[in-house]
Write a structure and sequence with these properties.
about 325 residues, alpha/beta, Rossmann fold, 2 domains, 7-stranded parallel sheet, 5-stranded parallel sheet, 8 helices
Length: about 325
Amino acid sequence: MTLNALWVVVEPANGSLTTTSLELLSHARTLASSVAAVTWGTGDHAAQAGEYGATTLYSVGDLAGALPGAPVAAAIAALAASESPDAVLVPTSYDGRDIAARLSARLDRPVLTNVTGLVDEGGLVTEHPIFGGTQIARARFTGAGPGIVLVRAKSFAAEPSGGAPASVVTAPAGELGAEGAARITATHVEERQGPKLEEAPVVVSGGRGLGESSRYALVEEAARLLNGAAGASRAIVDAGWVPYSHQVGQTGKTVKPTVYIACGISGATQHMVGMKGSKNIVAINKDPDAPIFQIADLGIVGDVNTVLPSLIEALKSRAS
């Protein structure tokens, strides 16, 4: 390994670390001889961080309602002045983007975004899908100081290594000034049934081929019967049929379920970027020339409003 140290920003959520954080830790340990994690909050994440590859866990501690961007970026900048990691890997999330941007300003170092691949070629090389995922651009950092990398979810597998709990080190509090004035006054969690979209083993997504918003209920019913999650194309999200949180694609969520069922989705490149890594892809579309069939493992040419009810009835019969 030519990389000495990689740091990973790991986000706490509901008493655990987010799946994307664990994905980054898992891959970082294959690239560098030393992996450290940086987190915040009051939870004890040393065992989980160590299990996925971190030997050290820098904890910024309780933020007392403050947004994590400013204090976490300040802490990393203070630590990096003496520790000099090769790069800081950050999940592409709302907090992750904020941390990366503020850290870039503090360290005067660039941020490489939309990263889906990381390789060691005598230094860290990042891979970025472009032109809707049809081509891969590669980049590397130059100059002194750690690079900052924003990595997309589902780019790597979260695989435990069985490591010992990470050693917890209190991260130094940086000077925040006016940056530290913002506070979280309330949080809201969207109600849902079943698994999260980005973690579901089965995803059933609906598109414009459904015809009208009321028929999205068929997608939700099929997803429920399969113990999966309901997704959507950007077209019906933009049309207001479903919330943005359901969107799969380049500007939505990236999913890699065992089974992905595309219902009435033609297969725009931007949508396929977010789901083409699925293990098994089933497409239902009345247009035999729809692009989605090019990546489908099983294609059904037919009206989704006829095929999907038949599937639902078959699932109900099997359940009974």
